[in-house]
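Q: Sequence in, structure out?
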Amino acid sequence: GLTKNGIQYGAAFSGLGALHISDDATGSVLAEVALPGPLRSRPGAYGIHPALLDACFHSVGASPHVQALGENVLGLPLAVQRLRA
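A: Exactly. Output:
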């Protein structure tokens, strides 16, 4: 995981909840993300809160395509095909 690569997150970056990974060849990932409690008090302070966006990026790591890259690769998203709220 990210900790193994020297990346450590605090409680504000714990917004990734449930994950569903499709069984087909697309490798689609459906993730439930939410801001942790203390950060929810200022919803209008950002267009998209950085911690919420980060939780979305963490879900990318669950994709079978990213998992297939192996442990020594840090897969970073280059594009988002679809985002639903």
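The chain is about 20% helix and 15% strand.
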